[in-house]
Structures are given as structure tokens and as C-alpha cells.
Amino acid sequence: MNVLEKLLSNRWFVKAVDKDGYYQVKDEVGKYQNFLSEKLGYHVIVNPYVVKLEKIPAVPENWMGIMEFNEQMEYVFFCLTLMFLEDKEVDGQFILSQLTEFMQSVWKQGALDWTVYQNRRYLVKVLKYCVKCGILQVYDGSEDRFKNDSQADVLYLNTGVSRYFMRNFTKDIMGVTSPKEFIGDDWVGMDADRGIIRRQRVYRRLLLSMGMERTEETEEDFLYIRNYGKKHVEKDFSRYFDCELQIYRNHAFLVLGEDCNMGKYFPDGNNLADIALLCSYLVRELAAEGKLEINMQDEGWMLENQFLNVIEHCKKEYQEGFAKMYREMTTKEFCRVVMEYLLRMEFVEIQDGRVRIRGGFCRMAGQYPEGFPKGS
């Protein structure tokens, strides 16, 4: 894995947590500055505490959040933790009760009651995430004790990198009311350079998304790929990664080779990815049999209960190859888990009781080897 792949695969490299990794990336990141700044419009933060590549997507997607968080309140507590750390010295220590008292003091929606187990559980999840990504280090105690006892305390050390977690914005975000208003913020003031913005938008989309779909909104970007894809775009990417740019009528994909180990990719060895590929194969079979119409955008539409029947059939047919956890799930639970995964990966979407099967999902399929035992 080269340094560029490491930068794309990790949020950052914190000196206090991984000194060797920090120095390796710091010493070699200069080799990739032109590609990152010119082709992607990305900024690299390098200072005595952290090296971080600001990976801003062209379009935010479901799977790009903090996967450890499931509830809105966890994000709220995380932002409050970052606010608390702004005034703390690097390598300074504090105890958990100082943080909880700060949160209570700035809480605007009534009293923040730490005797409520749910609140403590949310905060413990946030703190464990902060430790995992290097924002905090535990000096004494355990968060799990606080989960069971609101009087329990933990001693933390502030590594100083919390201030680099959030990206810098070019405008005041206090008036922002929807996620869409954040899109393109880093291109503010570049109206005269539409060509540069389009190039960076295309490169980001190919690099950070599962693929690029041709729609009315992306028609201009797709035309760029048609005109420059194989000649320039693939050449730029293949200079640094083992990859191939595949361009179809309505889709474009950056397909990684065996020697590329970069970030999140599909399939990733997870059994859910295998199940998704099997479901795609069953969808393709329905299309081949004339039971599912694929439109000019290479997408299919099914009633939600019909699509759930496909997932149910997948379990019945192929569960001998699933991990024990999925084999032992009830059919209802299995369908729920698989559907949530497909929605999170944006392979499908639900609209008014119907499932839109995106063309990119239909381009991928998986089968077990011939002779594999199937269900009855």
C-alpha cells in the first residue's frame, strides 16, 4: 500500500497514536500534492500533531457517515465533545465529569440528565469513538463504568487533533438549513473556472463513490468522462493505483485491481457483500426471463414486497454458504438486514412503496460454484 492509498484509507495519522505512520506519510505526501490539488481539489493538513487528507465527496452518500453512530443524539454529543476540547491544551488531561458538566451548561433543550441510561450509553459510544480515532487517550478508568454508574469518572488525555476533525468552511454555516447547502462549498469563488470544478467533481465521484450514474444532473460530467476518460482520467488514476476505468452507456466505474488496497470498496469480503451479489444475480435472472423490465437508464423497478421476495429466495437458495449469523436469522430479520445494507450502499432506493434497482447494482452479480448445495 503506497502513501496515497494510506491517506485515502484512513481519516488521518495522529503522531501521538502512530508515530511511524505519521512520519512516513509526512515525508512522502509531497509526491502526490499535484494530483491531489489539481485533479481532486484536495488539501493536505500537515502539522506537528497530525497528517490529514481532506476527503470531500462530490456528492454525500449514505455510507459516508460515522458508521459507529446510529442515532442523531450521538452526533450531537460528538459535536459537543469537540466544542469542549477546543479550549483544552494539547496533552492536557481532564476527567469525564468535566465534560458532562460542560454539556449540561450548554444544553438548550431543558436539562441534560445523566441519570438516564440512554444518555450515558450515547456518550460512552462517542467517547469510545474518540479514543479509537485518536482524539482522546484513556489514562485511568473505563467508559463502561460510566454506562452503569453516572458517578463513575474517567481520566482522559487530549491529543490536540480534535480541532482538525471538522473541515473548514468558506462561509458562515449558522444559516445553513439542509445538507445540500454544504455541497460545493470548497468551490466558492471559482465560478470562472467551471472546467476545473467539473474535472475535480468527476475525479472525486469516481474515486469516492461506487460509480457514476448518468442522470440529468450529471449529464455534463458524464460527457467529460466520455470525451476524456480513457485518454486522461484513467491515465491519471493508473499512475498511482492499480485500476481500470470502465465506461458504459449510463455508468462509469473505477475498478480496482488486486494490487490496490484503498479505502472502502465493493465487494469487501463481508458476507453481506456476497449476499448482495447473489441478490443481483437473481434480479438479472428475472430480467432475462422477461419478469423484470430494465429501462433505458439500465434500472429496474419492483414493488417493495416483490423485492423482499427476491431477498427471501436468496436466503432459501444459498444460505448454506452464509455465515452462521445469517443462516440462523429469521426470514424477516434477514430481509431487513440485507435491505438496510443495499439502501446504505445505495444499490437500491425506495420510492412510494416501489424499489428502484440502480443500474450499477445490475452490472455486478455473483454465483456460487457449480455443484454448490442449494436449498429446496
Order of helices and strands: HEHHEEHEHHEHEHEHEEHEHHHEEH
Poorly predicted tracts of residues? none
Count of spatially separate domains: 4
Largest sheet geometry: 3 strands, antiparallel
Going across the major beta sheet, what is the strand order?
A: 1-3-2
Number of helices: 14
pLDDT average, as an integer? 89
Number of E-state strands: 12
Shape: globular
Question: What class, by secondary structure content?
Answer: alpha+beta
Work out the helicity level.
Answer: 40-55%
- Amount of beta strand: 5-15%
Termini separation comes to: 44 Å
Please give the radius of gyration in angstroms.
23 Å
List its traits.
single chain, 376 residues, alpha+beta, three-stranded antiparallel sheet, 14 helices
Helices and strands, with pairings:
Layout: H1 3-9, E1 13-14, H2 19-28, H3 33-39, E2 44-46, E3 50-53, H4 72-85, E4 93-95, H5 96-106, H6 117-132, E5 136-140, H7 143-148, E6 155-158, H8 194-208, E7 212-213, H9 219-238, E8 243-247, E9 251-256, H10 271-288, E10 300-303, H11 304-318, H12 324-327, H13 331-344, E11 348-351, E12 354-357, H14 359-362
Antiparallel strand pairs: 1-3, 2-3, 4-6, 5-6, 7-9, 8-9, 10-12, 11-12
